[in-house]
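Sorry, can you check?
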Amino acid sequence: MENINIQERMKHYNVQGLSITLINHGQISGTENYGLLEVESDKNVNEDTIFSACSISKFLTGMLVMKLTNQGLLDLDEDVNNRLVSWKVPENDLTKNKRVTLRNLLSHQSGIKDPENSFGELKSITSFPSLVELLEGHTPYCKVPIEVNYEPESGFDYSDAGYCIIQQLIEDVTGKPFHQMMKELIFEPLKMGSSTLDMSIPVMSSEKFSCGHNKNGKLVDGKYPLYPYPASSGLWTTSLDLAKLVIELMDAIKGESKAGISSNVIKDMISPQRGKGWVGLGVFLAGSEKEIEIQSLGWGVGFQCMMVAFPYLEKGAVIMTNTELGVHQMEGIIGEIYRTLIS
């Protein structure tokens, strides 16, 4: 990190708080923390500071799916309607020849398009909609029912709705709340004690939770933006905990998983799906073979973050900020840090 003055760049971008954890040789090699949990406060970011990971939740969800696939509870390539109970993907002319699979949903190739202006942050702290209400189009987050808009596997559309379906599938198959399954099968074995998807926790009461800020460095409304669909966007975590998840992926490749995820399942997760070289299962890809790079980006109200890893080279980094710059991660401070790390 010697080629970049992080404090100066934070000032330049109005970034209030930032945490970076680096991975080398398949282990955490260091963590660096800068700035404040909340603008104009005296609360400094440290290694216990919890950020909203936004869409990096999809990488986490992918890891849980791999574990449940290993247990035989899920099958990546069967029709998801076989095991969905509470809600089913509506059948139409587009699903006649190809059915929606878990592999399609994880790789955003299910033929489902998120309706315009859907999947925003929580509108009211007092009411969390059920996933079924959400998928049926009965909530302010998604005002029309979710359905297949073109034949599965014939195109790519980044979809939060797809991950809502994955979450419902996991809850239907296991009979337990999604956040509980994640805690039992991923957080506890990996000792990710600072990670939560449980939005019944009054986050405001904790000194560890970071507030969200806008591109001018000002607090966002409500301070702590929440998303009522955890599998897609609900993870709150530290850069250290997220690095443990990345290391679990690297360990699983070598057959040394702590969560009991097999090597062949993980290799499938980081392989191009259906001929699209840039997308795996819950992660995005660049490069190939032993140089393969996996990425997961989080971008929501008040927060931006990035996970990047070279699993076979056993290198990686997690960069988390509590400021939403209004530009893609690669055009802001995260991109500057990323380029320093891989140069």
User: Anything to note?
Assistant: The CA atoms of residues 62 and 282 lie 5 Å apart.
